[in-house]
Amino acid sequence: MKLAYKNNSFNVALIVLAIIIVFFLSVPILKMFVGVGSDKLIDTIKDGEVISSILLTMKVSLWAMLFVIFTGLPLAYLIARYDFFGKSFLEAIIDIPIMIPHTAAGIALLSTFGDTGLGGFFKVFGIEFVGTEYGIMIAMMFLSAPFLINAAKDGFRKVDPKLEKVARTLGANPFRVFFAISIPNARKDIVNGALMMWSRGLGEFGAVIILVYHPMTTPVLIFDRFSSYGLSYSAPVAAVIIGFSAMVFLIIRFIANRFD
Amino acid sequence: MSYLSIKNLSNRVAGFSLEDICLDIEKGEYFVLLGQSGSGKTRLLEAIAGLDPSSGHIYYKEDEISKKDPEHRDIGFVYQDFALFPNLNVEENITFSGRYREIEDAQDHFEDIVDFLELKDLLKRSISALSGGEKQRIAIARALYSKPKILLLDEPLSAIDPTFRNAIMKKLKEIHRRYDLTTIHVTHNFREASYLADKIAIIMEGKIVQIGAPNDVLNHPQSIEIAKFLGFKNIFPTSLIGDNSHFKYFSVDPNVIRIVKEVNDYCDFAFEGFVEECMGITDHFKLFVNVDENHFFIKIPKREYENCLSDSKQSITIGFDEKDVSYI
User: Fold this and answer.
1) What pLDDT is attached to residue B309?
2) What CATH number is given for A37-258 in this structure?
3) What is the mean pLDDT of residues A17-40?
4) Domains in chain B and their CATH numbers?
5) Given a cut of 90, is residue B272 above it in pLDDT?
6) How many inter-chain contacts (A to B, CB under 8 Å) are there?
7) How far is A163 from chain B (nearest CA, A)?
8) Which residues of chain B are within 8 Å of residue A179 when distances are taken between CB atoms?
9) Can you give the residue ranges of every domain in chain A?
10) Using a CB-CB distance cutoff of 8 angstroms, which residues of chain B are in contact with residue A166?
């Protein structure tokens, strides 16, 4: 490692402080795997309830991510490309879910989509949000969409508008320009944002538990086992979801980098 | 009606406006739009291409193209920084328009462009691995492949190494003839304009201020502002040379002003003044002479004078002939 300055005391201070934060970030994760033991991990992987909960969590978080790709990318593009009245206000609205407590977000969602007029409206189409996968999806989406929308917004801002203008002169209409030029040239930020949103969705607990206790997502299952049976029953589940998420995360990152 | 006719084109964005632009461009013409940075040149090109919303009318022959979207105007555009698509390789960039338009004899046309612009070895390369000159050729090839009715070039030489500029100017002229194009070329460089143009328009602060044949525009500016932009030096009121015509100003080239021994018949006009400054540059002296608070700038070859007239306030007589005077 080459350090920018040769001042020893400065470098030592940097390294010591960095080690402290790395300790707090990494040791609990490592402890989860080391402390649990391989027997318990294998038993947990064989546990049908755990596996179906992990698959449910990953699947619903994926649906939430795809929904935001479909609706959030146009919003990110609008904000990145155009100046309009209320743009700052709109950007603030997108960021609000990052700032509010997740349980408060759950209450807000329940008050909006629970036993209300709006909830009744969606029921007409067979969509219910309390105690269903739709509820999990909307809770995950509400709290993690800003990660994807903000990343896509930054990605679109990096695409030179002249590329889009030239594409228009070459015969592409605005829709084709969006798909052939804007999205492909912002894809790195979009993929990063999507991964961030998906992984953030996996960990959503506060809002999900208020809307949907059953079917159980993995964070709810971990809480359920912790409160009913204690640490030794909940830790292996936590270790397995961390392992699964890390694996999927690395695979997607690898594929995305291959296409760069 | 002209091949391309622009009538009362105006637009106003972010405090800058194009005002009532009227231009007529004939088929096969190489039209150069000359103006300083910020004069509205690129804005005008984008308005013609339909990329910048504007009022007014643009006709291609009889057809009003100003009502059409950019993708239906058949106008090729080459930006100053080339705007190649980074997500596509060279070949995909060139043939991009083929995805959306029917290109007649596409394969032959593609091969002809690739051969003429010497792009064969670059076709599978990524855009990030190209030099400025290569990028420019690809941007031109991409525009040519779409078989445009009109080609718009936005400062195509400004991002090119100066040593290659002359060769590229020659190539641009060849491209224009070979592909039977009507070209509008935007630049701030009047030497480039003088070499390439069949017709020149000068744009200043969003208005066309002079238009005509290159020789007329470049040698006979219609206003003092245009003269200054075109690099005219020694601009003074015509009263100084006793001219009573309708011209208000005249200009004289620093290279043709001579130092004479006295006010005599060797020059049509001669003035006594004093030297304000003399600077020795590689092969000439730059001399600044004050004639009744009119500050003349003169270039004298070093071979004609051994020593700089460096004494401040030294009296001097300068002169020039009527034939060297440009009236403004």
Assistant:
1) 60
2) 1.10.3720.10
3) 89
4) 4-223 (3.40.50.300), 235-327 (2.40.50.100)
5) no
6) 68
7) 5
8) none
9) 1-36, 37-258
10) 77, 79, 83, 142
